[in-house]
């Protein structure tokens, strides 16, 4: 309670200070620097589409939305999406199996946090069917190709259907016009290499954009500790946490809106990762109930995973403006992915002793006659080949009749698992088991209808936002997702919002069908639902912008992975009711050559069914950035401070109570210098003071996950023409 009171006091003080100072006469020399003045105005009026499917400013949408531009993430030295989303309040990220990244939003942090966030690339849904995620088969989406990334914090099912549960992340490929060629390269520590080329060509109404990119990072050697399950000794090993990623994209656009715009886009990605977090302890939490073990870190020094994935996407769309400003938009898409996991289980114990002193050998095959549920030492190889195709039609009109903006649409989506296999290979190369997962060959068909509208009242001082989406699933029935909001402009500089959203997430293939040995089937699994209520207050002036959001959410029929009582097997069930509430603050201030950005959040979240708090999510997260634009030359320096307090080293469960993590503090430095119109150089230092920080392990690896130490890079961007 002390922390809550302290944070609320800070939030109220900052908001009050902003409101007071913002209304005072500006002391800035108006002619000092046009670029600096325009940058904040552009920020305040930047157009977003993720929250309404219209191009509107963040002030005018009935969602808590954030927009991060390429300039923003480059100024923070971002390498991956987790770095980018640090600019968003109430968002916590950490690594997971095979170099993927868990994105937890507004307090709900578990091993399933890779699910429940809908990802899209220029309107194409990216989430897989097996895991309802992108973390494994699309772990990196190349930032150098993106113009901006938009994010909804909170429900988005009324717009995007399933998976838009806790949030939505929308990648937007660059849309530069004309002829250009840009290269960006960087080298750094540890063993960091990055290079990209983006180019464009225009002829009449035809615009072609394409890009190539490569990133490699290696040799972090992040130490981890574990307790030997047999003799209880304390040991240490290390994870390399390296990855290599190659990407390419092509975009072809022809026409103009009045006569029709045709667009074709293709995107390809190949990702390889080695020695990230492994299987942890989660699947072995019931072992101490039957066997005499000192810990459940059965993987020992082999608590690591590797990953290989390939992804290719193609989409085409057509958009045209008709009479009365009615716009018709049609899109079709197809993508396929292949993903291989490798789990190091070569250090599993070869026998376990029961609490009564009886020794049982490990399982060599599925049919081994032993009470010991643990397989003998081996390496697990698990694959999944998936594809997804769909099409949608949208018809919309902006404020013509009855002062109403409206959109109607329909669509079809098919998700398929073409192949999924598991191999268990012994240390000497012998294939111990080879089998297909139960969901191999499964597919899901989804049809949807959508209606969204916004009506203005009181000379447009008040806008009501309302909408609904209906989804019909071939395997889990139908679901309706409504949304409702009110946006009131109190004054030209002050806006307030009230928002309600309902979201759902349909069970994935593995959640319903299980896997061959570790997850049991549950065909009765139902979609989980969440209802979120939000109030926002936004104050904007020429040099200040402040947004305060208060939210509460109720998450019902939550899908959770729990021990089945049959050895090391688990099962997905609708078991939990959860609740969260929180306060979010975003503040931007710009005066003279200084700019300051702050986002902060305080969140409380609880599993009401089990009486456990989601302590793996930091109660307090703050990000403070200060940038200075030099006047004697074209250079900018920025200092960023991220802090997280009050969280544990993992996700608490009935059988596991992780220790508290030490407070997290990380300072990052960025400098960029434009030598001329074509060349810019830059350098980044992350974790400037080389502080040992711990992130939670949602799979229960002992002592959490060590975050990166000090890393740096230096690079250049060249615009050739």
List the helices and strands and how they pair.
Blueprint: H1 2-22, H2 34-44, E1 47-48, E2 56-57, E3 64-69, H3 70-75, H4 81-84, E4 91-95, E5 101-105, E6 117-121, E7 124-125, E8 146-153, H5 157-160, E9 167-173, E10 180-189, E11 192-203, E12 206-217, E13 222-227, E14 234-239, E15 242-256, E16 260-277, E17 304-321, E18 326-345, E19 351-353, E20 359-361, E21 378-397, E22 404-419, E23 421-425, E24 431-436, E25 443-457, E26 462-473, E27 477-491, E28 494-505, H6 509-513, E29 519-520, E30 528-540, E31 544-563, E32 570-591, E33 594-607, E34 612-613, E35 620-629, E36 635-645, E37 664-674, E38 679-686, E39 694-695, E40 705-706, E41 711-719
Parallel strand pairs: 6-9, 29-32
Antiparallel strand pairs: 1-2, 3-8, 4-5, 6-7, 8-9, 10-11, 10-41, 11-12, 12-15, 13-14, 15-16, 16-17, 17-18, 18-21, 19-20, 21-22, 21-23, 22-25, 23-24, 25-26, 26-27, 27-28, 28-30, 30-31, 31-32, 32-33, 33-34, 33-35, 35-36, 36-37, 37-38, 38-41, 39-40
Label the CATH architecture: Beta Barrel
- Basic shape: globular
CATH class: Mainly Beta
Number of domains: 1
- Output the number of helix runs: 6
Q: Return residue spans where pLDDT drops below 50 for at least 5 consecutive residues.
A: 1-37
Structure, described:
This protein is mainly beta. It has a single domain, classed as Maltoporin, Chain A (Beta Barrel). The chain is built from 6 helices and 41 strands. The strands form 7 sheets. It has a 22-stranded antiparallel beta barrel. The radius of gyration is 26 Å and the shape is globular. Mean pLDDT is 91; it is low at 1-37. Belongs to the TonB-dependent receptor family. Hemoglobin/haptoglobin binding protein subfamily.
């Amino acid at each position: 309670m002390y922390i809550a009171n302290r944070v609320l006091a800070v939030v109220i003080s900052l908001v009050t200070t902003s409101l007071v100072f913002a209304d005072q006469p500006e002391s800035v020399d108006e002619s000092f620097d046009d670029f600096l003045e325009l940058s904040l105005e552009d920020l305040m009026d930047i157009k977003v589409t993720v929250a309404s499917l219209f191009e509107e400013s963040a002030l005018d949408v009935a969602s808590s939305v954030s927009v991060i531009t390429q300039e923003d993430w480059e100024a923070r030295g971002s390498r991956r999406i987790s770095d980018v989303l640090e600019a968003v309040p109430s968002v916590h990220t950490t690594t997971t199996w095979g170099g993927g990244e868990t994105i937890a939003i507004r307090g709900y942090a578990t091993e399933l946090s890779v699910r429940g966030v809908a990802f899209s690339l220029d309107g194409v849904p990216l989430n897989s069917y097996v895991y309802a995620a992108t973390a494994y088969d699309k772990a990196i989406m190349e930032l150098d190709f993106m113009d901006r990334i938009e994010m909804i914090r909170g429900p988005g099912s009324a717009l995007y259907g399933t998976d838009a549960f806790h949030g939505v992340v929308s990648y937007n490929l660059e849309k530069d016009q004309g002829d250009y060629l840009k290269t960006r390269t960087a080298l750094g520590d540890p063993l960091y290499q990055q290079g990209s080329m983006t180019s464009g060509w225009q002829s009449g109404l035809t615009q072609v954009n394409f890009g190539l990119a490569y990133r490699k990072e290696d040799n972090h050697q992040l130490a981890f500790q574990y307790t030997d399950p047999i003799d209880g000794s304390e040991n240490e090993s290390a994870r390399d946490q390296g990855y290599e990623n190659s990407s390419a994209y092509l975009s072809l656009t022809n026409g103009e809106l009045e006569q029709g715009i045709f667009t074709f886009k293709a995107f390809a990605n190949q990702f390889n990762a080695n020695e990230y977090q492994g299987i942890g302890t989660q699947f072995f939490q019931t072992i101490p109930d039957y066997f005499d073990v000192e810990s459940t870190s059965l993987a020992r020094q082999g608590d690591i995973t590797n990953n290989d994935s390939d992804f290719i996407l193609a989409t085409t769309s057509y958009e045209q403006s008709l009479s009365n400003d009615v716009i018709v938009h049609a899109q079709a898409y197809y993508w396929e992915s292949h993903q291989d996991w490798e789990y190091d289980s070569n250090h599993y114990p070869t026998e376990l002793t029961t609490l009564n002193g009886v020794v049982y050998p490990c399982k060599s095959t599925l049919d081994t006659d032993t009470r010991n549920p643990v397989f003998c030492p081996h390496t697990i190889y698990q694959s999944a080949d998936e594809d997804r195709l769909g099409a949608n039609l949208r018809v919309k009109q902006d404020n013509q009749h009855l002062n109403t903006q409206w959109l109607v649409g329909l669509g079809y989506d098919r998700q398929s698992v073409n192949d999924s296999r598991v191999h268990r290979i012994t240390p000497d190369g012998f294939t111990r088991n080879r089998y297909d997962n139960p969901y191999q060959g499964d597919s899901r068909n989804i049809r949807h209808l959508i209606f969204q509208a916004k009506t203005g009242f009181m000379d447009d001082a008040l806008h009501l936002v309302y909408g609904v989406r209906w989804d019909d699933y071939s395997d889990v029935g139908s679901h309706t997702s409504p949304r409702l909001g009110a946006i009131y402009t109190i004054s030209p500089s002050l806006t307030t919002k009230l928002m309600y959203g309902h979201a759902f997430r349909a069970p994935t293939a593995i959640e319903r069908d299980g896997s061959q040995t570790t997850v049991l089937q549950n065909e009765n699994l139902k979609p989980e639902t969440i209802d979120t209520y939000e109030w926002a207050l936004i104050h904007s002036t020429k040099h200040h912008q402040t947004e305060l959001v208060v939210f509460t959410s109720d998450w019902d029929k939550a899908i959770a992975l729990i021990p089945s009582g049959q050895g090391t097997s688990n099962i997905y069930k609708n078991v939990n009711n959860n609740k969260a509430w929180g306060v979010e603050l975003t503040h931007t201030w710009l005066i003279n050559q200084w700019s300051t950005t702050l986002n902060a959040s305080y969140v409380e979240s609880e599993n009401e069914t089990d009486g456990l708090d989601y302590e793996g999510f930091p109660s307090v997260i703050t990000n403070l950035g200060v940038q200075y634009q030099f006047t004697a030359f074209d250079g900018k320096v920025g200092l960023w401070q991220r802090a997280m307090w009050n969280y544990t080293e993992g996700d608490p469960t009935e059988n596991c109570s992780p220790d508290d993590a030490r407070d997290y503090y990380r300072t990052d430095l960025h400098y960029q210098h434009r030598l001329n119109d074509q060349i810019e150089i830059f350098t980044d230092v992350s974790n400037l003071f080389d502080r040992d920080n711990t992130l939670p392990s949602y799979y229960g690896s002992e002592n959490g996950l060590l975050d990166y130490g000090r890393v740096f890079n230096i690079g250049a961007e060249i615009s050739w023409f």
